[in-house]
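Deviation from plan, reported transparently: pantoate complex.
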Amino acid sequence: MQIFNQKEAFILFLKKEKEQNPITGLVPTMGALHQGHLNLVQKAIEENELVVVTIFVNPTQFDNKTDLEKYPKTFEKDVEALKTISDKIVVFAPSTEGIYDNQVTSEKFDFDGLEYAMEGKFRTGHFDGVGTIVKKLLEIVGPTNAYFGEKDFQQLQIIKKLVEKNHIPVNIIGCPISREKNGLAMSSRNERLPDALRKEAGFIYQTLLHAKKKFGTESALDTINWIKEQFELNPNFSLEYAEITNEKTLKPVKTKEKNKDYRLFVAVYANDIRLIDNIALN
Ligand code: PAF
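Because the crystal trials were delayed, the predicted structure below was used instead.
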């Protein structure tokens, strides 16, 4: 498996490699790989000739210093996990200085309002940080296809907008959420949950499933109020937000209309660990 830390050497390698294998898939990650990431990589392997996985914990997308410091770093284990999929994967794991050229700041983006909803409200500057790093990675790798999980559905919509507005020639491919046995959405943060709480956390997905049923016959407001009640009754989890939005605009639903796609989003604290999840309602 080829691993690059230096941008220049990586770019030279890619240029040569693409002469033989031009169809390139990019899977950007912050490491601490779990089965959800590996599913993205597997899909990329099936659909491309060359697959690049980037591992970089991007400081500019963290609004909370402790969250950044506590973000799990498991590089050796990540490489071993990737090897079980294919030896041909190319890993790019730059240093912060190497990728940010000593200017560790975010570009300011206009994502047509998508950035102000939900995660944007609670994590100031988060999407400017995501936009900055994803734009850099797309420029460096120049992939045909780039893969992102639907757990971060808002991020996925924002990246589609980034690509559209900046005319970046790449297909952005969203992939379904991978879940643990109890339904908990896979996330690198799950590792930080004590075992008992991790088991209990199936409650989040069960609540989403139940809410989806309710939304079939009840209003968005009643469904959200019901979710709030469920969380108030469960002392293990504290709900930061629950929103039902139009899937494209991410604007909250006031009245249900036919032929519109809606999605329910939640952010939840379990101890000090922040978990997000979402479900399509149609
Ligand atoms: O989803 C993530 O892991 C990150 O936000 C990403 C897309 C790799 C950018 O740092």
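The longest strand covers residues 237-246. We consider this an acceptable substitute for the interim report.
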